[in-house]
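Standup notes
- DV: blocked on the single-chain target, sequence here:
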Amino acid sequence: MSFDPELVTDDSNQLRGWIDRAKYSEFGPVVHFAYGLQKDSSAVAAAADTSWSSGQVEGQINRLKMIKRQMYGRAGFELPRARVLPYSPAVTAGPAP
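- DV (later): unblocked, structure below
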């Protein structure tokens, strides 16, 4: 049983077919994974059918959380603000005309 071709085609119907076949696999973790995918089938189908990704947003959130953890107990609000704002598009773009 192969998993790659179903994701390469970006077709949720093929992915659903793989899930249906995987539920009857002899390998327990594959069966468990297939049932987990089936529970959230609408999100899985949307991920297969659309090219939209939230990776950029998640990356920025992780960066902010890391800075917050590093600054915990070190200073007030000014130091974390100074570390976050240089990366802000509003700060790097300059003043509005």
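- Follow-up: The mean pLDDT is 77.
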